[in-house]
Amino acid sequence: MLCVFWSYFFSFYNFLIVLYPKDIEVKLGFDSVRAEVARLCSSRMGKDFAAQMSFSADFDSVCRTLHQTSEMLSLIQSKSDLPGEAVFDVIPYVNEIRAYGSFMTADRLHALGKMLAAISEVRSFFSRSVQESDQPMFPYLKMQFSGLLSFPAIEREIDRCINRFGEVKDNASPELSEVRRAISSANGSIERSMRRVLERMAAEGVVDKDTAPTMRDGRMVVPVAAGLKRRLNGIVHDESATGKTVFIEPAEVVEAGNRLRELQMQERREIVRILISIADIIRPDIDTIIDECLAIGYLDFIKAKAKFADFVGGSLPVIEKNPEIDWFGAFHPALFMTLKAQHRDVVALDLHLDASRRFLIISGPNAGGKSVALKTVGIVQYMMQCGLLPTLYDNSHMGLFENILVDIGDQQSMENDLSTYSSHLRNMKAFLKNAGPRSLVLADEMGSGTEPMIGGALAQSILHKLGESKCFGVVTTHYQNLKTFADESEGFVNGAMLYDRQHLRPTFQLSVGNPGSSFAIDIARSTGLPADVIDMAKELVGSDYVNADKYLLDIARDRKYWSNKRQSIREKESHLDSLLEKYEDTASDLKQKRAEILKDAREEAKEILKSANARLEKAIRDIKNAEAEKERTRQIRRELEDYKKSLAEPAEDNAVPDALKPLKHKSKKSRTKTETPQTEKKAVQLGVGEWVKMDGSGSTGQIISISGKKAEVAFGALRTMVQLSRLTLASKPKESAASQSFSISSATSDDSRRRQLNFKNEIDVRGMRADETIQAVTYFLDDAVQFNASRVRILHGTGHGILKTLIREQLRVNPNVSSFSDEDVRFGGAGITIVNLS
After folding, report:
1. pLDDT the model gives residue 826
2. Sign of the torsion formed by the C-alpha atoms of 474, 480, 485 and 486
3. DSSP characters for 739-792?
4. 330 forms bridges with which residues in the sheet?
5. Pairing of strands 234-239, 397-399
6. Does residue 21 have a cis peptide bond before it, meaning omega lies within 30 degrees of 0?
7. Where does the pLDDT of residue 679 fall: very low under 50, low under 70, confident under 90, or very high at 90 and above?
8. What one-character DSSP code corresponds to residue 518?
9. pLDDT of 109-147, one tens digit each?
10. Proportion of the chain in helix, strand, coil states, percent, rounded to 5
């Protein structure tokens, strides 16, 4: 993997990249960007990668590095726990153990263990990000780091032998454990002996009571005044700088100290043996470990680039293979950092250059931002091709250039005998030599530094030649002939740095399409130059020359006005087109909805007809029972069939047969009108003994008695109390019919009593078809009226509401129903209809 990483920085292609001049990064201000990225790296390896970061024109390489940085930026902004935070520069340590018998110290082994653990974390993180979804979460980082190698055996051995403080553990080997126990015992023995000596010496007045032993050359000694040193037997190891204190190892602990020294040397030999054994395990994988460590260093470098992008607002634009500049919101990152420290905002620029408009000539006032705009173009392009996220909006398009040629600043040199203008000419020579279709040329104040007329002419000639090379470029100037040249030449376009004439200050905004004015007279007046001096200058150059800028501004204003007019017309036309399309879609939807409504209406009519059919069947059955005219029955059936056929036809207005009109669903208004004659009809006075019929029933009965608004009516052998308002006068049945009715009533009286006893004030119609439901509800209501039930319940369920709608349509036209509503939500709610009978 080492060659993979370093090849990123040292890739050379079959074409020669030209970056002119050599100090181009200083000219553009990229050196401060590189320094900031290096500062954000947390390891020396990352800083090395930042130092070696270089310009590339390879499309795949640039896209890969930009996407890696963009994915890391997403990780940072999501506040995720980033892997590989513990980065240690262990490559020098690993290289030191290449020789057999060499070893790495315990603290360095601890750092290596941390680094190997970081490698495993990175590998696990980016492998896991692949498995959580069908598409990799970070495909470019995954491709770079999910294939890292891990070293579990080395990690385990380091973890077994080295503790978290970078020291060899006691249990690294049985021998080391035994030696350290012996050392601990020897130290305890020496401390006890030393404590006894100090107590005795303090009692004799040789040392103070609070005197404590100290260490000299690894031996425990007692500080004694020089005049009293003869009173303590032992070995003198050292004395103070003044010579007034000597450090004596008491004779009682000398032998124990010698033993301790032997144990310490034995401990060091065992530690070295353990470290050599660990180095022997590491040695076969040294090159692989270095490659993986470089990978972590490269990840550190990517993090630094992402942190820089997060700080300055860099983003990933659309990258194109061919040269293109279609930028929105571009700004200079170094200027951004400077202004941010001053709590000021940077002014961004929008720029569009393509094959048809390749060269921008920027003009405008001094200190108006022309040079900053020029450097912004250079550094944003340079950043992108170095793998840094450029400082512009992500909807921008950026192409790749092979050459970047820059002429910014004064390059005069006494050593090289170069004047300002000579240095500019030398740069122009390099431009003409290297410029091509994939070159970006940046020149500040082209043609300046010499006599204006010839300087402007040479600058125009050079621009003409550069235009023939089809290169891209941005040039700043004050020369009028270059503004005119850009306005008249193909592939060139003027640009202006705007100036606030009202407040006499630059706005630092770039406007492409029109030349700018130098505003020399206005700036001279704002600086306080004497008015007579300014007037004399105006007279010297002539009014036409002074007003040239004004004429240009007038032309630019007019162009902008008509451009805005054209844009407004285009927007209105676009709006009208969208409205027309919207209205056409709406009309189509309305037509479709109309067809759907008609279809639903026909379906509803069919359902109503089914309900009417059930009522008609009942009426026919009653007629048969009363031996009514069969011809009338056949006539009703014929009208019914005609009505069915009329409903099947897609006519706008279906005629309803007169015989079925009472069954047709009416609005409240129509019902009100039709109910009036019924009310008048029922207002006829009824008396005892009169024959009557009850609404909703074809049977004829005789009034037995009247009590208030109710009457007792005898229907054959069955007597019942009925509201007077529900009774209408009827003719007396014939004798034969009455006899037959009496015999039928006698035969059915037992069945009627049985039905009355079994009657329940609730019916369940769930699961029935529409026609079955209407028929069942009709019979149920008839029985309820017959058995004097004042309140019943119909269980129809919720579902799509079809049964509920049909039932309630039937209830509305039933004269026996006074009102209906949903059941209480505690007892069924909308799935049950409560019917109150009159």
Report:
1. 75
2. positive
3. HHHHHHHHHHHHHHHHHHHH--SEEE-TT--HHHHHHHHHHHHHHHHHTT-SEE
4. 349
5. unpaired
6. yes
7. very low
8. -
9. 999 999 999 999 999 888 875 544 455 678 999 999 989
10. 55, 15, 30
In contact, 357 and 493? CB cutoff 8 Å: yes
Q: What is the distance between the alpha carbons of residues 723 and 438, in angstroms, rounded to a whole number? A: 103
How close are the terminal C-alpha atoms of the chain, in Å?
95
The bridge status of strand 357-363 relative to strand 472-476 is parallel
Name which of 795, 777, 772 is nearest 837 in CA terms. Answer: 777
Coil vs helix vs strand at 508: strand
Which candidate, 365, 476, 354, 349, places its Cα nearest to that of 424?
476
Q: What is the per-residue pLDDT for 674?
A: 41
DSSP codes of every residue in 40-77:
H-SSHHHHHHHHH------HHHHHHHHHHHHHHHHHHH
- CB count, 10 Å around CB of 124? 14
Using one digit for the tens of pLDDT, what is the confidence trace for 470-509? Answer: 999 999 998 889 988 998 899 999 998 887 766 667 788 8
Residue partners of 343: CB distance under 8 A and separation at least 6: none
The amino acid sitting at 683 is A
Q: Scan for tokens 């800083």, then name that residue.
A: 47
Work out the percent of the chain whose per-residue pLDDT is above 90: 39
- DSSP label at residue 168: B
β-pair partners for 713: 703, 720
Q: Output the pLDDT for position 543.
A: 67
Amino acid, res. 108: R
Mean pLDDT across the stretch 709-732?
A: 76
Range scoring the smallest mean pLDDT among 349-358, 577-586, 709-718, 765-774: 709-718
**φ, ψ at 344 (rounded to 5°):** -120, 160
Q: What are phi and psi of 347, to 5 degrees?
A: -95, 120
CA distances from 286 to 47, 87, 122, 543, 705 (A): 22, 17, 19, 80, 120
For residue 319, the cross-strand partners are: 398
Scanning 649-767, the segments in alpha helix (DSSP H) are 668-682, 735-758
- Integer Cα distance of 168 and 106 in angstroms: 6
Tell me if residue 514 falls in helix, strand or coil. coil
Residue type, 445: E
What is the residue whose two structure tokens read 């500062």?
A: 39
The sign one gets for the Cα dihedral 791, 676, 699, 658 is negative
Q: Which residues pair with 691 in a beta bridge?
A: 702
C-beta of residue 364 within 8 angstroms of C-beta of residue 497: yes
**Predicted pLDDT at 137:** 79
27-59 pLDDT, tens digit per residue, is: 999 999 999 999 999 999 999 999 999 999 999
User: What's 84-124 look like in SS3?
Assistant: CCCCCCCHHHHHCCCCCCCCCCHHHHHHHHHHHHHHHHHHH
CA distances from 832 to 485, 771, 776, 808 (A): 88, 19, 16, 11
Q: Is 149 left (phi over 0), alpha (psi -120 to 50) or beta?
A: beta
| Tokens (6 digits) for 820 | 């209906």
φ, ψ dihedrals at 472, nearest 5°: -100, 155
Tokens 């110290």 correspond to 105
Query: In 3D, which of 404, 379, 399 has the Cα closest to residue 34?
Result: 379
Give the torsion through C-alpha atoms of 273, 277, 278, 281, to 10 deg: 170
Q: Is the pLDDT of residue 626 over 60?
A: no
Q: How many CB atoms lie within 10 A of CB 467?
A: 19
Write phi, then psi, for 369 (nearest 5 degrees).
Answer: 105, 10
User: Residue 663: is its pLDDT beyond 50?
Assistant: no
Distances (CA, A) of 781 to 379, 386, 712, 762, 815: 90, 89, 20, 10, 11
Q: Does residue 154 carry a pLDDT above 90?
A: yes
**Cα(314)–Cα(491) distance, rounded to whole angstroms?**
30
SS3 call for 6: helix
**Neighbour tally for 403: CB within 10 Å:** 21
